[in-house]
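Progress note, project year one: complex with magnesium ion.
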Amino acid sequence: MRLSTQLLGAITGITLLALLVFGAVAYWIMTEAGEKRRAELLAHLAGDILAEFLARDAAAPDSSRVAALHRKHGPPGSLLAVWRGEAVAVVADGPVPPGLSRRLRVLAGEGRRRGRLRLRGADHRWAMAATPSGEAGVFLAEPRRGTDPDAATLRTRLLVTGVVILWLAVWVALILAALISRRLEEKNEALRHQALHDGLTGLPNRTLLLDRLAQVLLAARRRPVSFALLLMDLDRFKEINDTLGHHFGDLLLREVGRRIQASIRENDSLARLGGDEFAVLLPDTGREGALLCATRITRHLQRRFSVEGLHIETRASIGIALYPEHGDDGVTLLQRADVAMYQAKRSGNDFALYDPGRDSHSVRRLRLMGELREAVSAGQMLLHYQPMLDLRSGAVSGAEVLVRWRHPELGLVAPGEFIPLAEQMGAIHPLTLWVLETALARLRAWRREGIEMVLSVNLSAHCLQDASLPATVESLLHRHEIPPGALQLEITESALMHDLDRARDMLGRFHTLGVHLAIDDFGTGFSSLAYLRRLSFDELKIDKSFVRDMCSDPNDASIVRAVIDLAHNLGCRVVAEGVEDDRTLARLRELDCDRVQGFYLSPPLAADDAGRWFRDHGHRAADPPDDDGGARRDRGTDRDQPRRS
Ligand code: C2E
Ligand code: MG
Ligand code: MG
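Model obtained:
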């Protein structure tokens, strides 16, 4: 039964009960009051009769005179007795009860003046009036059922009033109940809405989405149709939130919600699952429709956002799962859409359809995440070193330090797979410290063997957030007795561009320390030249994607040439990474590239192999960079062909 109906019933019931009780009490009070009035009236009549008797009849009462008095004063059905001395005359409408005279004497003797008694088999109220000596007196009794006309009128009025009050009360109760129940329904509705919607965007939340998903599933099973579930999150939202504040982040999320809503049909469902994660349920939609919708959402989100006067760009990665192709229950579909979203992220595409072939990846990813923290302390991490050749001196001038995870069951895991996970779970700082510590310890050992070189260590974008890192690096260098110039830190171009001011500050502090700095994977991060000018760094590393095909692709060749010229004009050195053959090496030489790194020279090697490689290749330190970090370009020195290791 609905709450409002229950409330209505309860209020009506209580009102009726209250009215019944009230009626009964009122009736009782009324009856008592009538009885009292009647007794008083009777006493009054008795007094009048006595007065009249005493005034007119001095002698003993005679029956005809008493009958006259009875007629004049006695109420219908009453009994009148008048006495004087021993003589008593009784008049009644009916037979006179035997022994009455004696009872009168007893009552008079007791001094009582009114009361009730049974006469002729019926209840009577009586009143008595007597002279002070008791020598003469009057007794008047009437049956109790004799109704008081005033009381009858009152009772009728009470009844009518009661009915009216009842009628009014029921109506008031009904109206009140209706009002209260409406308020309750509204409150209930608000609570229901709150429980099923997201407070920030007003969109359905995960619970409601799951509910709708269950309904769509039921419908889809009844009449076989397909539907799609899209899961998306915003790239870089955490940074936006951290940099511009939560208020800004909230406003952005609302706008994102509005834009996604504008990209879907009316019967599609959009939900915010939490944070920057949204989901869209597309009933009656197949593969084509889902892809079309994802394209539309991407297009809407690509437009620049304008929040509180700030213009910002963001994009979403969308994962798509289809029913029944990718799963026939809600949990599976959600999980698969999540995997697809991750696949989109990794591939750098705006959206991806769930690909079962790549799904083991997600299980593997979860596993790696679970075991990553312990891996460092369990001694499962190791470092490889990839030599770098100085093209001018022909000497091995340094090596890049590349971390690997030797997983007891999965084998060697590449950093490209676990570094993003470490960043995501906040485990990158301890890992970086371990890499620095181990690399510097190794460098110290090599230096003792006479192998002098510059080791290049990669720093993640997250490391730039750690303000204490320069001091930590300084103390590590000190502890391992390594001069700062023997350490180079590589930061990817995209990491620098995330938070340019912080990056500039960090690079400045490392620069002051005397540590060398390189911009890694240059050409992939869309940095503007104006920004580049403001950063202090020593080396640009051209990304291997340009180097790999530069001999076959004139565009790549042009980019490599332009980067080399740009770096030299900015006063720094250039390293080409990913050199895989001698043609590329020769071409880089022609273009005046300073250093090379790649499989052609040597793949990354384990520490012992690397030490052997350096000794075998007649290692000697290349010209160290200038103390001011500027490039050292003594062009035209010997350019020995490197040897393949
Ligand atoms: P990166 O810093 O650009 O490192 C160069 C990557 O190119 C290495 O991959 C290396 O093995 C690979 N490479 C070298 N020569 C060639 C070549 O001739 N051809 C091709 N195709 N590839 C070549 P790796 O070791 O898998 O590292 C991948 C990325 O992981 C690194 O890119 C770096 O960004 C990151 N990484 C590695 N170690 C660390 C680390 O200790 N800390 C951080 N934060 N990132 C690291
Ligand atoms: Mg690197
Ligand atoms: Mg690189």
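Residues 520-521, 541, 543, 577 surround magnesium ion (ligand 3) (CB under 6 Å).
Residues 620-645 have pLDDT under 50 and may be disordered.
No further modelling is planned for this target in the current period.
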